[in-house]
């Protein structure tokens, strides 16, 4: 019987909170010493990082060992609930407490003072049904696609691409990945497919130099890749032209230039450079002479161009220096900040006239000038 069907026999146990430093052989010896003979131990490893995920599967030779382990786990949980030691962390009003995990060594599974939790393994169909229940919200498909995009160019310790990278760059990438995952779970943030965030930029590089670097990389793209890229961008812009939100005149102008340049790689590259709308480096102050914060943004008119720039610049040692490689990822926008920005822009266009609400898609032809007193009464 294959390992995929092992759960049907009822001899497989799922372990969580498994220490990263423990090996499969050590874990097998630890379990066999307490519960009986083990057929195999499998520690789950991440496909991306090739590092342990902190979970494992154990298959015993007989069901008695499984029952022995689960009953021991139940006793450990009961002991934990009945003998909780609470430690005071703060003397202020909002006092916080923590539960210590001190249990006798004969209860549960422990390795170097760390408790490993055991559960009866579920079958594949049961696990899939639970996963579907977790992701029963309508926006899950959107989240999955966005998570796939933020994984573009992902490099973490243990991956092949991480070879030759400095420890500083690896730490930056780890922190950036944690930040991205946190933001993507927050509904106030959304992924922007037309803008890129570039981190780890040397402080002596300005916006013009960064733009020239991007243009140079675009001009060095292979001819076949450029042809395919132009075809993808044309199809993308044709789809956008069907949307009312997109400017038809701007779209039509870009499409005409792209179609004319299909047979000429040089013209295509010049048109692609024109699709880069803006390059911006974030500084400490609004003053252009202030110190750079080490990261910036690139805004384009095409998702496929953004993706091509990401794949070209990300982790490229020839862009800055081999010790300081660029970290390129799709930017994540704060919806609240964008709303306030649009509202302020609308107010400026209306020459100081008051607008309480900014409705999407609604065209305001005439706006009445409202005094301060009337505005306060409207708020009530």
UniProtKB/TrEMBL annotation:
Entry's Gene Ontology molecular function annotations: mRNA binding
Transmembrane domains' residue ranges: none
A Pfam family matched in the record: RRM_1
Protein name: RRM domain-containing protein
Entry's Gene Ontology cellular component terms: nucleolus
PANTHER family cross-referenced by the UniProt entry: RNA-BINDING MOTIF PROTEIN 14B (PTHR48039), RNA-BINDING PROTEIN 28 (PTHR48039:SF5)
RRM domain ranges (all copies): 11-92
Domain of life according to the entry: Eukaryota
Entry keyword set: Nucleus, Repeat, RNA-binding
Subcellular location: Nucleus
